[in-house]
Design brief:
It contains 24 helices and 17 strands. The chain is an alpha+beta fold and about 600 residues long. It has 4 domains: about 170 residues, GAF domain (Beta-Lactamase, 2-Layer Sandwich); about 90 residues, Beta-Lactamase (2-Layer Sandwich), CATH 3.30.450; about 180 residues, Rossmann fold (3-Layer(aba) Sandwich), CATH 3.40.50; about 130 residues, no CATH class. The strands form 4 sheets. A 5-stranded antiparallel beta sheet has the order 2-1-5-4-3, sandwiched between helices. The N and C termini lie far apart (about 75 Å).
Length: about 600
């Protein structure tokens, strides 16, 4: 929580008093006490998850708010050590440039009153104006900073926005608080959002999707497991370990009876009335897999999830096999979110998508000047980026033999040697590989190294195709709910659902997602009908022998009826010839003239 205007002056005065106690001279240069290269490298590896979340999710979301002003956004750890910075450096005093690079410390003891150090000292968001810096050399800028907290409300870092502009303190402070709240929300959801429902609430109905909404994550009993600080402010109390019934005077069943992601009103304990919406666990939105330990409805999938979760924690490599589109990548994402490395990176490498001549450079990294066309600064490589996290090697069967040999050495030694020389670097990774090929067959055919196969296949998990899964109905309903727009029917018509259940799904979950997205887009506000399903999908139905599938007759009859018996029109919609359609009609005993009549 930021300091109120009435106490801001007191915060600055208290900071200046501390600086005097530290023996700082206002005329002296700041001491940033920068880390050496090896200590910095270790720190950045430990903080990779926080860095990645800030860089890839929070910064793009708020870039428009920064506009074209000369801002610099800085992220530090909980000790005030700078991890990274984004923005312009044009306004920085040339004497201070080294203080704005990773490894520099911004503690009050060395840098005097400053936004990062003072936010750490007082545990609250704070704005430090130009002349409020204790050291004169820092008075070229004004800064605002907010402390960052994880799902356990432990301090994990500080976010700072600095500028040479004389903008209102409230504007910069509001921006950094919003960015900090956005990051806190993401840290909470990364840990709890996969398995548990969320309740978002705010004073108005139009800002429930903003980072400034209150966020509660709750279990099946309605007990609050995690909450952001905005929730504290709105409720006037810390909601952790309380129940939703206690906080909002509403039975849990009545709250969950509200349509998901649809705003409704709740009366909080006291006189406050909030606009709210609830969301299902993030894992249920994948349309394929819950987090490890969850139940999908298919015994084979449940067994694979449990086994994979146990062995991943014991550093036993996993090989996931299955047809194209069964959701191998989603499976691995669910494993990552439920693992002890959820806060670490998940680095996915599609071995089939990288040109053969670049696979080694992309995986293992390279020193500057290692080869023509390489980036002049070199590259760490995908394996090093996965340090303290999970490396997911998708379509590993397509990896060229030279890269297979190097990968084997890395997995044996857990140490990587970049192309072009340089010192070997130790890596701490868990390895999950995937392929739509049977790699044991590839080994026997001499197309995949046997020694690498045994290194990556500590346990081989075969994911069933969609047509064999016993939870097909639930999956279809989940994917429909995922892509359904507000205002569209909540349920699929029974004839469409039955058609989807019988389909062979050669493209598996990927095809199911595509078919339903197309159908929903074409249907608009109307229920999805047979006429909204893609022609290629319907043609696949005709390619399946009709024996044992008598309902196919009713499907074709519905299409013919909609087309007033126009066989040519139906054939075009199915992407087949009139001759093929007539042949199938005869097999099914259908007369288009009678149907039209």
């Amino acid at each position: 929580m930021a300091a109120s205007p009435s106490t801001h002056a007191q915060l600055i005065q208290a900071s200046w008093a501390r600086c005097r106690d530290y023996g700082l001279d206002p005329g002296s240069a700041p001491d940033f006490d920068s880390l050496n290269a090896s200590a910095l490298r270790a720190l950045l590896q430990r903080q990779q998850a926080l860095l990645q979340m800030t860089r890839d999710e929070v910064m793009p979301q708020h870039a428009s708010l920064l506009g074209n002003s000369s801002y610099l956004v800085m992220l530090s750890d909980a000790q005030g050590c700078l991890l990274d910075a984004w923005g312009t450096r044009r306004f920085i005093d040339p004497r201070q440039q080294h203080g704005f690079t990773a490894g520099a410390h911004w503690r009050e003891q060395g840098v005097g009153t400053n936004a990062i150090g003072t936010a750490l000292a007082c545990g609250a968001a704070v704005h430090v104006g130009h002349d409020e810096h204790y050291l004169r050399q820092n008075r070229f800028m004004a800064s605002a900073a907010a402390p960052l907290f994880d799902a356990q409300r432990q301090l994990v870092g500080v976010l700072d926005v600095s500028s040479d502009s004389y903008l209102p303190a409230s504007q910069t402070l509001g921006l950094v608080r919003m960015m900090g709240q956005s990051l806190e929300n993401r840290l909470i959801l990364a840990q709890f959002g996969t398995l548990h429902r969320q309740l978002l609430f705010n004073t108005g109905p139009n800002n429930l999707d903003s980072s400034w909404a209150g966020l509660l994550v709750f279990d099946e009993r309605g007990q609050v497991l995690a909450a952001n600080h905005r929730a504290d402010s709105l409720l006037g109390q810390n909601p952790l370990q309380r129940t939703l019934e206690h906080l909002f005077q509403t039975p849990l069943a009545r709250l969950l009876a509200q349509p998901e992601a649809r705003a409704f009103a709740l009366q909080a304990t006291g006189r406050n009335r909030f606009h709210c919406l609830w969301k299902a666990p993030l894992a249920s939105k994948t349309g394929a897999w819950p987090a490890t330990g969850g139940q999908t409805g298919d015994p084979r999938v449940d067994k694979a999830l449990v086994q994979a979760g146990v062995l991943l924690e014991k550093d036993i490599p996993l090989l996931v096999q299955g047809e194209t589109g069964v959701g191998k990548d989603v499976f691995v994402n669910a494993l990552h979110r439920a693992s002890s490395r959820a806060q670490g990176p998940l680095v996915a490498v599609n071995c089939a998508a990288i040109p053969a001549e670049l696979v080694e450079a992309e995986l293992f990294g390279y020193e500057k000047g290692a080869f023509t066309g390489a980036h002049h600064k070199g590259s760490a490589g995908m394996i090093r980026k996965a340090d303290h996290g999970i490396l997911f090697l998708d379509e590993i069967g397509d990896m060229p033999p030279p890269a297979q040999a190097r990968l084997l050495r890395v997995l044996q030694a857990r140490c990587i040697q970049p192309l072009g020389g340089g010192e070997p670097v130790a890596v701490d990774i868990r390895v999950v590989s995937a392929s739509n090929r049977d790699l044991s067959t590839e080994v026997r055919a001499g197309r995949f190294r046997q020694d690498l196969y045994y290194r990556i296949a500590g346990l081989t998990l075969v994911l069933p195709p969609l047509r064999e899964r016993s939870d097909r109905r639930a999956l279809i309903e989940q994917v429909h709910a995922q892509y359904r727009e507000p205002g569209q029917p909540h349920r699929l018509d029974s004839d469409v659902l039955e058609l989807l259940l019988r389909h062979p799904w050669p493209g598996n979950l990927r095809q199911l997602s595509c078919v339903l997205q197309v159908a929903l887009a074409l249907a608009g506000a109307r229920p999805v009908g047979l006429e909204h399903l893609p022609a290629a999908f319907l043609a696949e139905q005709l390619d399946v022998p009709p024996a044992g599938r008598p309902a196919m007759a009713s499907d074709l009859a519905s299409l013919l009826s909609s087309a007033q018996g126009n066989v040519s029109s139906v054939a075009r919609s199915l992407g087949i010839s009139r001759t093929t359609l007539y042949k199938r009609l005869r097999e099914l005993g259908l007369d288009p003239n009678r149907i039209a009549g």
